[in-house]
Amino acid sequence: MRKVLIIRFSAMGDVAMLVPVVKCLATQHPDTEFTVLTRKHLTPLYGWMPDNVKTMGIDLNKYKKIAGLNRLYGELKAMRFDAVADVHDVLRTMYLRWRFRLGGAKVSVIDKDKASKKRLLGHGIDAKTLTLMTTRYAQVFHSLGLNVSLQALPCFSTQGEDFSLLNELYGEKKTGEHWIGIAPFAAHPGKIYPLEKMHQVAQELVKRGCRVFLFGAGKSEKECLSAWADGKDIVSTCGQLGGLHNEMLLMSRLDAMLAMDSANMHIAAIVGIPIVSVWGATHPKTGFTAWQQPISNIIQRAELECRPCSIYGKKPCQFGDLRCMALIKPEDIIDKIIQVIGKEN
Q1: Residue 148 included in any domain
Q2: Which of the four pLDDT bands, split at 50, 70 and 90, describes residue 218?
Q3: Dihedral sign of CA atoms 120, 126, 131, 133 in order
Q4: In sequence order, what are the residues at sequence separation of 6 or more whose Cβ sits closer than 8 angstroms to the Cβ of residue 294?
Q5: pTM for this entry
């Protein structure tokens, strides 16, 4: 098996979770060439891979409907892949893998085990932890005959990187400084800690001698974080860094990242920094925890019997108050961050 296509278009967090699996896979199979097919803006996640990994970033708007998928298949077919790993399993990838199978390529697809996830709803206290997403990814390659042992290999390196933009924007990190990242947003309200309380967390961290960097994207998030920023001790990075690559370089300078169950949690895991994550409507037992991060750094109200009410956080709160987040005290988050970075109170 000389050439393998790996398909995962979204979401950003899921594409990020695939990174350590591909790194292990490529390292353990150096004679096989792997191509990751994903959205164009997500390709920087794979910027520190071995030479036998390529990324193919596309704009899905250029491949709409069956005609567009047929054109995409034609472009991929010309690259002569021996096997296809569908680690997404949505309509687009179903069609593509069907075409590849008809063309004689070996094909494997992820088992999302939706039934087990559904049974977990409302039973987070007693339920067993489901298979990690990274393990599910690895199983797809096992099915292709490419065994992969998931190891804590570095997925990121600062060697040879240009920090000039970061130095111009924020200055160089001084000896003894503690830089903390805060990514307060997520795709759905049930995954977002109350913003007024998160603002309190940022302000208190500054009082504890930390410098805070705020991460977000989009107009509404930018407006919110700009209102929090003071230009010195609390800095908004929205719209300043020009994409994922520089965001990851900045993350590499952080002593810790505070994030929700979100893409930024998984991106920070690729960089390899400590992560304190806050979980509400969703639950770590669903298998979406950050790569190589200790469970002890997760903050949640584990005693609530309604959790998880949703696997992905989309479902409205049955009580209307998002108590899974509202009951978490800012002090609990602050104390955990201070503990993780080893800073004395």
Answers
A1: no
A2: very high
A3: positive
A4: none
A5: 0.97
